[in-house]
Amino acid sequence: MSKGKILSVVLIAAAFGVGNYYGGLNSSPVITSSSGGASFGGGYDKSQDQDASAEAVQQVQGEVRVVNDGESIMAAVKAANPGDTIQVMPGKYHETVYVDKEDIKIVGVIKEGARATMDGQGKLNDAILYSGNNFVVENMTITGYKGNGIMGQAGNNFIIRNNLIVDTGVYGIFPQLGKNGIVEHNVISGIEDAAIYVGMSDNIHVAHNEVFDSVAGIEIENSRHAIVENNYVHDNTGGILAFITPGLPIKTTYDVIIRNNFVVNNNTENFAIPGSTVAMIPAGSGIIVWAGDDVIIEGNIISNNKTGGILVSDHNSFGAGSNDPESEPNPDRTMILDNFMMNNGYDTIDEVKALLAIELKGSDSADIIKVGGGVDSCIINRHRYTTAGVSDWKECDFTNTKNIETYLLDKPVAPRDIDPSERGKIAYLGICTGCHTYTDRMIGPPVNIIQALYMDNPQGLADYIANPTKKREDYPEMPPQNYLDEGTRLAVAEYMLKTSN
Amino acid sequence: MLSRLLAAIWLPLSLTWFSLYSISSVASDFKLRSQCPPSFEKTSAGVCKLRTMYQFYDSVQGRGLGGTQTSLPEARDGFSPEKIDLGRYLFFDPLLSKDGSVSCASCHQPDKGFADGMDRSIGITGEKVSRSAPSLWNVAFLDRFFWDGRATTLEQQAMGPLFDPKEMGNTPEKLVADISANPVYKAMFTKVFDDKKVSVANISEALAAFQTSLISLNSRYDQYAHGYHQALSENEIKGLNIFRSFVARCAECHQPPLFTNNQIAVIGTPDPEGMAFDVGAEATFNDKRNRGGFKVPTLRNIAKTAPYMHSGKFDSLNEATDFYNKGRGHAVPEDEELLIHWHIWEPNLRPEEIDLIVEFLHSLNDESLTPQLPESLPSGLPVVDQKYAANKQLQQQLQQQEQQTIEGEEDDE
Q: CB B75: neighbour CB atoms within 10 A?
């Protein structure tokens, strides 16, 4: 944060005056009991989420494939069909495993504590990349990769559980662009960005993980409807982050509940790659809300973080700033409920000291620090903490989030349901019409001639599509369309035989 | 193997047959087509709606990006087939330029990936303009145009080159006068537009309609994405995995299935020697944090559009890929301070990994839905230009020879 920015913060604070809201200098503290009271009534309404109301996916139950030490996990994935489970026996595996299939489970078998270990030996990029839906990976040990331990790309309904990920590249667990996923019971350390990084995703549950010795512990970035709970987040540079990072195609973070976590001793010197978003995090940051909206922080034990317990900032006051006109830079509606906070900010940065000084607070304690813009935030029992910048925050009208058990969906997100005729039509228009028109000669013969030949024989046409032979001297041979699955080929044939233009 | 070989020959050949076909069948009276282009369905309202296999999939926030099976962002479609066809004639017609010497297609040539094979394009004055011509494939999905993102619609974009003194050099008055004076165009505009007028707005709308029909979504990568994993070779799959790994991070900005995230990124690519530093999107947004920022281009048909980057600095895909491997900000001039995108770092890829990425990028080639070139134009001017026509003829001959060779080999089998 530059001195210029600090100065502007000082001026703004002075202009509004230092508020003596509840619990101020000469009034008795308002103590709100969090054991009773109202539960959070806002947030995510599943019934308004179109994707969430889709039919449940029928997850196929397939066969179990066993991979023994010395064999290849990837070979098993290649051979697998949707629904299959790949059991990986204890041993060492040096490979990158990619899963571009639906319904695949990779399950490490733990025998008397011995685990299946994927070791990138400092050479391989990522350990596991998945893009299929309903992907499960559990019980694996991952180490020595240059990139990520487990990276998801747009796969929905994922479960990443019970994995041990140490000393591996940039992110430990990185589901990106997925909906409805669980990251739980993982132990992750030694990551130069975030141990767990949920990016551009929706409906996520991150629970019961231990993350330590990394730059960031758990990062929720450009994601919505996420709960981070019951995690042990210690000895990182920054503990738990709710960020909107500018310049990405999905622009928002909101509906994030951070509750019942241990966020302690996050004082590790920042060892991030220069230029990365987390390189700006001062060592000793417990929880950081950076432009994220509707973030609820509740029931955490936040202690011994030397810069501050909870830092709330906009894009302009902290970090490199936003060069993205579409990303809204202010953290709106931050909601801080009861948290156990102790010994935070004991060796804080000058910028935080300056903010504390404005409110005539000492400089050896900083539990909650807010800087920059943002509206409609609230807090209860503020007298418990050393704070700066929250004096104009309202009292929250609720004390707990008990009525929100999870933001996960009741049913898995279903692939878009397309009836067979639509499938045939779309494949016909998207592919076949590159070479065929209804009545005219193009690269291939006109469709009306094909109709005359195959009128009562769609299966015959489907077979021909898969394995064409040269029929006409004056036309080039058709390339096989066997990359379309059997059902689609038949659907295309049926559509082609009934289309009239 | 034979089928793969044939498929590889099929695509380039298809272009040739297209051209042959067009010569024999397009009526000389310039009748506008009533059929939608390939990949479009004509609805009961008489307009063309895009249909692709990607419409089988859903995506987070409906943005359509990221994995193999994700939907596409919403596309610009819904134009009448006649409007698209009028746009096709206009696109290829040098009548749109100040002196009838260049058309839109001069810088966006169908056989050069709808770019022009130049580091920076040459406009009507014979001088190089400041930036390279971007490909037009899949522009229907974009909402930012020009390297610096200064236009938000294709119509707005069209005004740039039409009226830039260094590009097509025209004025709105002369453009409308020239097209109005042509009876064929006059009749076409009357038929296509409700207001029956030849106007700048209608000209740019027709051009937009045509450009939204340039769809490239049937590459071998797409076959892979739809579940046919044999469509890519082992090396191409390795390349795909490096491409999308978080070490190389290519896919973070060039996100499938469009292979662009349609954002502005500051990556610090160098300008050619002797050229002033190009501030890029700083000017668009009046924000110095966007200094040196340019639009992330699609990688669809990228193998066809060398040289690369906004100023054509790199001659090959290898060089362009290697730029990212050389370290964050390595080419930024000493007196410049740029806010380089955080995805740019120093991935330390091995040379063979760069080769594999390049090999993968070739699997994004798909020109199966290339539109037909008009055989002749209402203005009577040459289609694209003479050089282009000569090139086409040469290609045609080469491909016929190739085909004969292969047929000979088949007979041997």
A: 18
